[in-house]
Amino acid sequence: MSKSDNRKVAFEIIYSLEAQNIKYEDYKENVDTFLEINEIHGKATIKYIKDVVYGAKRHGKQIKKQIEECLSEKWSYDRIPKVDIAILNLAIFEMLFLKTPYKVIINEAVELAKIYADEKSPSFINGVLASVVKKNNLDGGETKE
Asked: Is this structure's pTM higher than 0.85?
């Protein structure tokens, strides 16, 4: 599987777990079942998917704070569709904690939004992620606080 395919699977799992409100202690069973049912194989593939899914959940509070700090005054976190939240969780985790190049992550997050989310989501996700990049100085520019 390509890295893009791996991200798609990771997104599907993150979204599924969040939509079902699965507790973290039940993640392992659910992730393993998802991988088995969908016949996902390969040591590196499974490791990446599990690292991202578990990591995004473990760092969920930090990721949520990143998202909230990028929203305009008209928006609240609770208004964001769950699909968009899942895409943002995946993308922000990879950018901040795996140090994956932000240009790759933003592009792939926008592509996921085009497939899974509504028509306004790609630009919304692009805007939030661009703000996260600037806020965390991932582009080498000055940090904005």
From this structure: yes
